[in-house]
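User: Structure please.
Assistant: Input sequence and predicted structure:
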Amino acid sequence: MRFLNTSIGRACPSAVSGIFNFMPGELRCRHKRGTMVVKIIGRGKDSGQSAQDVQRPLSHALPATSSLPLSKLPAFVLPTALKVPVEGTSDMKYCICSLVFCLSFVIAPGNVAALEPIPDKTVVLTFDDSVKSHFTVVRPVLKKYGFPATFFITEGFDFRENKQDYMSWEQIAQLHADGFEIGNHTRDHVGITDKTVNQLGVQLEGIDQQCHRYGIPKPISFAYPGNAITERALSVLEGHGIKFARRGGVPEFPYEEGRGVVYEPYQDHPLLVPSAGDARPAWELEDFTRSLDRAKQGRIAVLQFHGVPDTAHAWVNTPRDKFEAYMRYLARNDFNVVAMRELSRYVDPGKVPQDPNAVIVARQQVLATEKTHRGD
């Protein structure tokens, strides 16, 4: 296919000037600055539909110079043959190309980086409950391997009095100074249910205030205490500036097993990101690696840990030697380890599924069918 150098300022009425280059398998964009909101219009060769019938919006942030492989577009965007207006050197012409999209965009202030393709073997490390061993054991192990992580902080349990089992705020501030993310886990470790969701705003603010006091940025990541969830929490979290919120592996799997599912962006709501695994004392390396198996093809494994060891909550304890083996496995097998906030490199948290529960219900149905076939 021949190269098309196309200015679409007049090709699409709602567009402003920009330069687009269309090539097989690749879309390149150049503009002075700003975010582009892109509409992709396409139709099948023999569908009999007009372009307007199948118009689908796709928002994607592009930097001043970037490339976006067509293979990385969401699955619902189908490259097809389409007759589109193209501005040539002197007048408007029409070209038929095997892979063409009609695009319109608007430029907004700022220079927003493009979303990166999600690498296979991407893992998010998270640690709950402000446990003392996060500072004394987890911190040096993570620093040894250069791994980022998110520490979800609460003042619940007997945090204020018990400094044998829980970190001080000075230690939490040091984690921030070390480059780790500090996330919000509510002030009092309140399980967020339909009955308690009215407390969520105050609970979030309690941790925000302490973060401000100790020079820590306002958290943009959240973990549900006790992995209790309710859809009513989503608007509260969004209004509070939370970008990503991690839940457990429930309801897809029972809480007791610590099993979970991988995060599937744009199917899972960004404020209901599932845990692929919630580490337990009886876990062995095989349990850990099972949590990672499906971290590929755009899916992300979000791992949940508590204390290493957890001297206050034995049922979620991870022995130090096992934790070191888990981290060594990630390093030796070249996993892409990130903190929760780094999901924004790959996922637009502003794009949410219409029904936050749809993917959860679908998974439950698949798991039930598999269980029946196994004869469990």
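Residues 358-374 form the longest helix (17 residues).
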